[in-house]
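Checklist before submission:
- one chain only
- standard amino acids only
- sequence pasted in full

Submission:
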Amino acid sequence: MKAREAAALLGADAVQMSQIESGVAGVSPERVRRLAAHYACADEALIEALMAMASDRTRGWWEEYRGVLPPVFLDTAEVEHHAKFLREIVITHVPGLLQTADYARAVYAYMMPGLPESELTPRVEHRLGRRVVIEGDNPTPYETIVHEFALRLRVADRRASHTQLLRILDQIEQGHATVRVIPTDQDGFAGAGASLMYTGGPVPQLDTGLRDAPTGTAFIDAEPQLAQLRTLFRRVEKATLEPAASRDFIHRLTKEL
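Returned file contents:
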């Protein structure tokens, strides 16, 4: 349907329709069901999930950073908040959800040299705030694949690296994260550019993928692309150590520092 046709169906004008489509204005659950009926959508689980999203007016902890940090920071935290599960592949850095304050600060300070403290501190605080999805009262199942290179890379100093490894082990022991390691001597691994996060929605059609791009983080929700991300995760997983062996591997690394 053209925008003006959809607007007429909903009893709205062109401006309201444009605001709804761009996410500036909300849409009522009743209008969601009306659109679903018009498009002959018979998937009740999907319709119910969309209606729940339409009626959700949650103002999460990330809202305190609106106007302080770029919108992508808030969008990432919100996607993680609503996820039913989280899967992540990280090659060059420790996953954000497992980072310590010193590690996160070193990464941001290096990637954005000259960043004033008034902007650096909120970035670090926001990254630590994201931990709530795996450490809160109702933790989200989280599985991550990390390369040995990232675990050995000293983004700050020896002490910070040792503390970072201990934190990862602590998250594993507490059941907050399932960690799989790709050792550097693994043959047949050509996925150096495979970093991604995959978040499970209330129904599979509402899954979302996040990938870093030259212009920033790209949010992916088209099914063909999501299918590629799922395939990529399974392919990379074949190059990893099992969780128990990965835990032992990280423990050995702490002894080397």
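Reviewer check: The mean pLDDT is 94.
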